[in-house]
Amino acid sequence: MADAGPQALCAREPRVPAERLVAEMVPPPRFDSVRFDTYEPDPAQPSQPEAIAVLSGFAAGLGGAHASGSGKRRWFARKPAAPTGPRGVYLDGGYGVGKTHLLASLWHATPAEPALKAFGTFVELTNLVGALGFQQTVQTLGGHRLLCIDEFELDDPGDTVLVSSLLSRLVEQGVALAATSNTLPGKLGEGRFAAADFLREIQGLSAHFRPLRIDGQDYRHRGLPEAPAPFSDEQVTKAAYATAGASLDDFPGLLEHLARVHPSRYGALTDGLSAVCLTGVCAVPDQSTALRLVVLADRLYDREIPVLASGVPFDRLFGDEMLNGGYRKKYFRAISRLTALARDAKPLVSQ
Question: CA Rg, the chain, in Å?
Fold first, then answer.
């Protein structure tokens, strides 16, 4: 048995300073070691090795001085002229072709210190704006060489306009951009969001992106992975007490707690945990709660924290109305990621 009892996520109320939010905008632990040479292109898809070559060249071109004349902001210098030609790439490909792997590889390959590069999901970027404010975010990221945005979300017009405005300001200051995106609600069954549609949605930013097509097999048509059968409350509780660094929470109570914690702090909520144990998992009652759970699932997946649960299987978390609605792709992603983490947690029961 572990020397101390399990912690509780519900007892945590992290206070995350703004500088930590910015410092944590790096590829998640799952993508710490990925590089262009660890990407295994499909020999039948010539666009995949071509993408590696183009992105490698793009990264190399970002070396040297920042557009303002140095790697640091010159607060009293004349505002630099907007760069000509595309200063961004959009990775255009279906689910499962390795877009995030390539995006993280681009971040690693760009010859600049980590403090001058940022990597995050669209949600993390909007959370940063919420925490810092628009102008402070522009000032904070304006001296960067590169900003990588994974899963650029186009299902919320307000957030799309907000981030597009932010990126326009950053491009004016010479920041290079790289992005992947999700699909729009009406095209969710296709598994791929065409570059032409992406560029239309971001409107004034379109001239700054070079679409880079990455072909490959689309795994979405295979449907959701089968979620492991849940364990009993007793098994989950026993495993939580036997696992050093584990947390133990009642699922409905955790959902209530997430409403009191800003999503930008969900990563800090999981600091130091070796596993998350949940009892009484049930269907999520409403969309606001569901979207918060999606963010937590992303943070747990990024940090590779196993999730052991009792109650309903993870593929029954979201009702039919949610899975057929505008945020369908987010819920599919959450189910897929929680299912993977549930598989990782199975050995905890046998300890």
Answer: 21
